[in-house]
Amino acid sequence: MKTIILFLLFFLSITLYAQKINVTSTSMTAEDMKKEVHFIDNAKAVQGDSWIHGDEIIVYFDENNQTKKYVSVGTVTFEFKEKENHYTGSANKVTYFPAKSTYVLVGKAIIDDLINKRHVNGDEITLDMTTGNANVKGSKEKPVKFIFDMQEKKPKNTKKKKDKK
Question: CA 102, CA 104: separation in Å to the nearest integer?
Fold first, then answer.
């Protein structure tokens, strides 16, 4: 019974905090004492136009049964859309902190910024969806890589019209 109550509180807290989140997986377990819900095998969470897919998604709650964080592990892929931001990518582990609207990607982390046509990869990427700022960490063996398009400035028209005589 406690498992069902925790599960219902999970969905209630999500609904009250923001748009509804639809989580699907092959199986699910709720751990009442740990305040966790595990979505196991082929787990996918969808909220609006954003989604995350991984081998497992774990939802953690605080002492007030509010959603504290989501952790997706395994082979993780995602698409995040919020206001003027649109990102796709992958990592070994993605943690989302809904109160801060922040994602932390760890292990073979890759983000493609589809709006600004930029690509970044590193060992760890912290992405703030509110500001669009990213903090990327690499190592000597695998340095941070940032790829972006440069827009060419068109030269001003310096030719003067010839006067006809």
Answer: 7
